[in-house]
Design goal:
By secondary structure, this protein is an alpha/beta fold. Helix content is 24%, strand content 21%.
Length: 233
Amino acid sequence: MKKLIIASTSTIYKGTYLEYLQQEIESLFKDAQEVVFIPYARPGGVSHDNYTKMAAKAFDKMGKNLRGIHTFKNPRKAIEQSQGIFTGGGNTFLLVQQLQDTKLLGPIKKAICNATPYLGTSAGSNICGITMQNTNDMPIVYPSSFTTMGVIPFNINAHYIEPDPKTTHMGETRATRIKEFHTQNNIPVVGLPEGSWLRVSGDTITLKGNCSARIFKKGKEPYLLETGAILSL
């Protein structure tokens, strides 16, 4: 049975890293002593070591050891034997390229489908979708494919923001960009605001957190999913 937390962000306003998710994470990884961390997204260009150290502090508070995948001699075996997996946020293009180069996308998907608990934040959540095409990130590298794990039957737009009718900003809204995506693609998209997350238990996907999510389907009017509701696509 799949067990995932798919979060829009690692940190919410005035909070510390993963603080708002601590109880959820403790529940997800309750049977794990060590969690494998995937730091490949490198937010702000931080090194793998420094990113892992930052994330490890949050896991220390929960009595868990966090070890970066880059420190294993055999990363594939580390994923196969892991008690839990956490993929952090950053640049989704870089994350996907690195997972393709290390041939880890398949093993991570297999581990998830075999009930290894998985936590993703931002870019680490984007890769749970069918493709990474609804990321907000700049294409600083060129992955060989946009296809990701597909452990959920839709794509994620993390850090989703509802259009502000009072703004003077003349650029595209997130809703506009997702509408453009649906002129060429059929994949549903979940606009996941900061402070919200999806809890996946088997085939049941529940929206949690303080905010509603916006659901986009090709040819349909977008609608809001209230927090606490089960997502059915």
